[in-house]
Amino acid sequence: MSIYFSGSFSRSAGVISAIVKQLKSVNLKPVKKIQVQFDPFHPNAVTARDFLFHISTPKVIETNLNCVIRPNVVCDRSEPEIKIDLVDSGSVTFRANNLTVLEILQQFNKHISSKVKEEEVKPSPVTKSEKKKKW
């Protein structure tokens, strides 16, 4: 008598690859300003610092060059907090005390990156020389 296998046959690629996958879908177009506030002596400040590191990479910044990313380092033993001001006069706040970077990025993509409107691709007009090349 054998025990049935219950699980996946392949190993997951890990947390880092999951973070990279979420970072590929981050879009800052609906964002006006991102404020990352943390106390460096707080035990859970690593999450906010890592989010700040990942969100300030050049590929992410290129999605909206007008977005201001502002770190705010305080020394008052407060919990790490990420405040995102949106273009349409709204704001989203993440209390990063008990969250991981992956969870923050997943919620960021769910609530903020989903507001990006897809641009319609207009077909370029076909010139006479291009028509001749086809025939």
Structural summary, described in words:
- The protein has helices at residues 15-24, 45-55, 58-61, 101-111, 128-134; strands spanning 31-38, 68-73, 81-86, 91-95.
- The chain is built from five helices and four strands; from the N terminus they run αβααβββαα.
- Helix 1 (15-24) runs parallel beside helix 4.
- The longest helix has 11 residues, at 45-55.
- It is 32% helix and 19% strand.
- The radius of gyration is 21 Å and the shape is flat.
- It is an alpha+beta fold and 135 residues long.
- A four-stranded mixed sheet has the order 2-1-3-4, covered by helices on one side.
Q: Can you lay out the helices and strands and say which pair or pack?
A:
Blueprint: H1 15-24, E1 31-38, H2 45-55, H3 58-61, E2 68-73, E3 81-86, E4 91-95, H4 101-111, H5 128-134
Helix pairs in contact: 1-4
